[in-house]
């Protein structure tokens, strides 16, 4: 063998090894990754899903008057936790918070009769109470599920997702290495070519959103890196039980604006402070108002800027004297060190914290592309082996059934979560938990259905169930609440209307998939025979 | 308006790149000369660079850069589907996206 032949053979061997690594790293934890991507993608609209799942909430007020909110809610805090060390009012100035929220810290549990730290979300300015809504975990649960897998304890859940993310990272890198014609094939999708079409679809979905896939996997690993690499903290903080606490203090340094003098003085008028912030940052860009030592002679009012204008959390604060109302200090972000700014950058980029409506939709679509990439990868493994009938065994059957029950079954489970929100009795004990159980029970049913039915029939039936599950959600919403699509559109409530329309769009996507699948089957009797065997 | 211009520029740029590929020419049934392919690649690159410059000129360029990446992905999905299912529309897409892009840019400059 000549040297050049030897080199070519070595290269081929290397590429084969990498190909195998790509296949198995993608397949082994592919279903967990699919779960992470489905729930994580839904999590980009967590607040909007929260709103849909609490139809009792009124339409969100546009351009709220922050001074009015402060004036209405400070008396509420005075009444609930008069002896607290700190009060906070969170203003509804962005999508993350549709209604005001109040917090208190360091309350006197005996005198005030409340827990030391507490909060009330979705405050009504008219009543000074939180709006009464149904018991639900909302979109926040879907978001949290994507990193803690729900039923598992927090740490094992995080570890499992971390291992799956590492597998995905390996799959992405090896995918780039084995894809020789990555740029030449950028737009190549050959239809009606069996496994070749699945391969093209997988390649196209992987390559066109490659920056997103890399970013989301890497940032996901990095920003909980301290959990995956705990020894790093021990190494830098001299070990011991307090190492993690010291690390946390360095990452999120506690702020101490003043010491209480224990001398009673009334709180200054808050409206001029908010007007000052409006002039300084722009209208309604104050996210939080913190009142430290309220009613004390050394009270401080801290206004914190919104964080929607930077990829790195660089929000400023303005500190006022709480008695005289004069400006004392302008403070930069607490994340001033390179380390904390880097951590903030990865967190913001991963979660799209800064994203407005357009960018949020782009995040959502990119998430769907990632989900489709994983699904096509799983399908490809199965379809490729269908060609080689001799190699079909228990493993192949397991993959095929898991694919059906997860690729279609999981979205149906998510739809069931929304159905349960509308159909479970409002007074039901542990109602919110049963909404979540519905998701997993329906998913389990779909897995059982996939296992018991012939594959071809299972695909068709599950796609049909998915169409019905998503298309009927706006109908169920209309039948069980007064927030139906037409009403939402008339009221200009784009959050509720957007959710209903997105569900219809999802149903249309599943209908398209069913149409393509049906047509493909009709044209390929041999394929049909194999699938039903 | 900047978002619309950005989308149009990325669509037109990527569509030019797509038109220069052998796969697209196979779909269309009309091969291009090397010179034509080079010209299409150059125009595509210029349009994408123009869209990138537009992003970097914005005050919140970090956010716009993220948006640009997202738009590239979305535009690419649309073009892949178009070239696979309706390849003859690709030239019309390039022309309409470019013309609309110029009109929107003019409106933006005038405003």
Which tags fit this structure?
heterodimer; A: 533 residues; alpha+beta; seven-stranded antiparallel β-sheet; 22 helices; globular; B: 111 residues; mainly alpha; 5 helices; 86% helix; elongated
Low-confidence stretches of chain A: none
Overall pLDDT metric of chain A: 86
Which structural category fits the helices and strands of chain B? Answer: mainly alpha
Largest interface: A-B, 28 and 26 residues
Helix content of chain A: 55-70%
The major beta sheet of chain A can be summarized as:
7 strands, antiparallel
Tell me what portion of residues of chain B adopts beta-strand conformation.
under 5%
Shape of chain B: elongated
What multimeric state do the chains show?
A: heterodimer
Shape descriptor of chain A reads globular
Rg of chain A (CA only): 27 Å
Outline of the structure:
The complex is a heterodimer of chains A (533) and B (111). By secondary structure, chain A is α+β, with helices and mostly antiparallel strands.
Can you describe what's shown?
- The complex is a heterodimer of chains A (533) and B (111).
- Chain A is α+β, with helices and mostly antiparallel strands.
- Chain A has helices at 3-28, 30-43, 46-52, 66-80, 109-112, 138-148, 154-178, 195-208, 210-222, 225-228, 230-236, 243-251, 271-281, 338-351, 357-387, 394-423, 431-452, 455-471, 473-480, 485-491, 494-523, 525-532; strands at residues 86-90, 101-105, 118-120, 286-292, 300-305, 317-321, 327-331.
- In chain A, a hairpin with a 7-residue loop joins strand 4 (286-292) and strand 5.
- In chain B, helix 1 (2-19) packs antiparallel against helix 3 (34-57).
- The radius of gyration of chain B is 14 Å and the shape is elongated.
